[in-house]
From TrEMBL:
Species classification: Bacteria, Pseudomonadati, Pseudomonadota, Alphaproteobacteria, Hyphomicrobiales
One MF term in the entry's GO annotations: methyltransferase activity
CDD domains assigned to the protein according to its UniProt record, in alphabetical order: AdoMet_MTases
Name the record gives this protein: Methyltransferase
Domain Methyltransferase: 46-131
Gene Ontology terms: biological process: methylation
Species per Swiss-Prot/TrEMBL record: Bradyrhizobium nitroreducens
Keyword annotations from UniProtKB, A to Z: Methyltransferase, S-adenosyl-L-methionine, Transferase
Amino acid sequence: MNSDADNIVGLYRRHATAWARLRGRDLTERKWLDRFIAHLPARARVLDIGCGTGEPIARYLLEARCDVTGIDAAPEMIDIAKRQFPGATWRVSDMRSLELNETFDGLLAWNSFFHLAPEQQRQMFPIFGRHAADGAALMFTSGPSAGEAIGTFESEPLYHASLAPAEYRQLLDSNGFDVVDHVVEDPDCGRLTIWIGRLRQRETA
């Protein structure tokens, strides 16, 4: 395992306050959140995976009358989220071992899932599926092509990885999701690559 990938949780624990300050309330993701919300029922239950401090994304979902559950592996992030948004549900949990025994109308892994190493990303798709209600929307960000990249945050290495687009499509399909929206390096959203999938109706016996 890449040691920089192993360090992600510790990095965000050490620098939660700095991250909250630098992230601020600027919502460049607004159009994508609106697209995501358009696939949800009224008062949808949304699972924010790697939610950080809840600002600004969970705030926007709460203002749209979603019932938000946020999970993050950094307790320091969750503590900030609880103080800012006491009306939501916040849990300290590592997405890689997530087992809430609940399903949600929407699942969001915005700029979080892409910190996982490639094999860990592959293992996330059954986890997404187990937490998705019939017809649930799943939105996540990735890189534009397969590979790893190391940025920096607070002078420490910040790991990112991506699978190939064809593999994301295969993983979504094999776990019951249809791709309903996908843009590579959206120039209006920080050149992020964004996916929205929708869970197909499960067959009943």
